[in-house]
Amino acid sequence: MPEYQLSLAEEADRLVTEAEAKFTQGTIANQNSDNYVLNAVILASVLFLAGIASRFKAMAARWVIIIFSLAILTYGLINIFTYPIE
User: Which of 26, 27, 32, 49 has its CA 20 to 30 A from that of 83?
Assistant: First the structure.
């Protein structure tokens, strides 16, 4: 009988659709979290490099490390400003 439908089956289909939407939202939130942690590691490496730059006696080595850390800092800041804010 085509006119006969189970109300629980309809509710189950609705709940499955809702669960899939929530799972997708959770996956996106998880990826955003991973991106923020990665960016924190990138910015921490900038602090590390800036800290060890003063330990080198050769000025050329200091400048190379400082310039490299500035490049990483620029990359990290660009990443921060392009992240979604919700």
Answer: 49
